TrEMBL record:
<dbReference type="GO" id="GO:0008270">
    <property type="term" value="F:zinc ion binding"/>
</dbReference>
<dbReference type="Pfam" id="PF06508">
    <property type="entry name" value="QueC"/>
</dbReference>
<keyword id="KW-0671">Queuosine biosynthesis</keyword>
<comment type="function">
    <text>Catalyzes the ATP-dependent conversion of 7-carboxy-7-deazaguanine (CDG) to 7-cyano-7-deazaguanine (preQ(0)).</text>
</comment>
<comment type="pathway">
    <text>Purine metabolism; 7-cyano-7-deazaguanine biosynthesis.</text>
</comment>
<protein>
    <recommendedName>
        <fullName>7-cyano-7-deazaguanine synthase</fullName>
        <ecNumber>6.3.4.20</ecNumber>
    </recommendedName>
</protein>
<keyword id="KW-0862">Zinc</keyword>
<feature type="binding site">
    <location>
        <position position="223"/>
    </location>
    <ligand>
        <name>Zn(2+)</name>
    </ligand>
</feature>
<dbReference type="GO" id="GO:0005524">
    <property type="term" value="F:ATP binding"/>
</dbReference>
<keyword id="KW-0067">ATP-binding</keyword>
<dbReference type="GO" id="GO:0016879">
    <property type="term" value="F:ligase activity, forming carbon-nitrogen bonds"/>
</dbReference>
<comment type="similarity">
    <text>Belongs to the QueC family.</text>
</comment>
<feature type="binding site">
    <location>
        <begin position="9"/>
        <end position="19"/>
    </location>
    <ligand>
        <name>ATP</name>
    </ligand>
</feature>
<dbReference type="InterPro" id="IPR014729">
    <property type="entry name" value="Rossmann-like_a/b/a_fold"/>
</dbReference>
<feature type="binding site">
    <location>
        <position position="205"/>
    </location>
    <ligand>
        <name>Zn(2+)</name>
    </ligand>
</feature>
<keyword id="KW-0547">Nucleotide-binding</keyword>
<dbReference type="GO" id="GO:0008616">
    <property type="term" value="P:tRNA queuosine(34) biosynthetic process"/>
</dbReference>
Amino acid sequence: MHTSALVLFSGGQDSTTCLAHALARYERVETLAFDYGQRHKVELDARLNVLAAVQSRFPAWADKMGEDHLLDAGILGQISETSLTRDTAIAMESSGLPNTFVPGRNLLFLTLAAALAYRRGLQVIVTGVCETDFSGYPDCRDDTMKAMQVALSLGMDRKLLIETPLMWIDKAQTWQLAYDLGQRADASGGGQALVDLVVEHSHTCYLGERTQRHAWGYGCGQCPACQLRAAGFERYQKA
Ligand code: ZN
């Protein structure tokens, strides 16, 4: 019986929904993010704002929220040249992958997360990877996750579950999932309270823009991350 989880929590829409998923399911939930010289500290601020908002608006979940961890993964900056860590524009490479791709990043993150989960006695790792709105990241594939689950469980000699609640749903369904989880949390405002929280506090924009407020939240509205989030929100509202 799994009772505790570690959520890979960046403060974006996806990982905020994953946090709610874990809080709805497990008794003790800890959160983890990596600092690897992201261009925008706004992401790291957003995650603290999300955590504070969840704690104040969802009392049933607040009691389950344990330690929040921030690990330095700055070593990624030494070995990668991508538009998320350097000042280059977001574009597609000849490989067909966007230049936001950091080779092996998720593999490293999952390994670090598993080591932390081991030390903290947490049984499940929850991550918001997704094949549906696929950016082409091979380390977000379901097969990669399953292989990592086996490798980490064997290598640490402890059964570890990697849970990916968003793997097969699109961005519109991710908004719907937030609504449903919020509804089940029995907070005042119901499902809409969690959707509002995601809109207001989570951060997705690659450019770190938080001055323009749209119906779907803050962002430049132009970058691929904003466009995906905006299009998903629009489809969600029409459904
Ligand atoms: Zn943007």
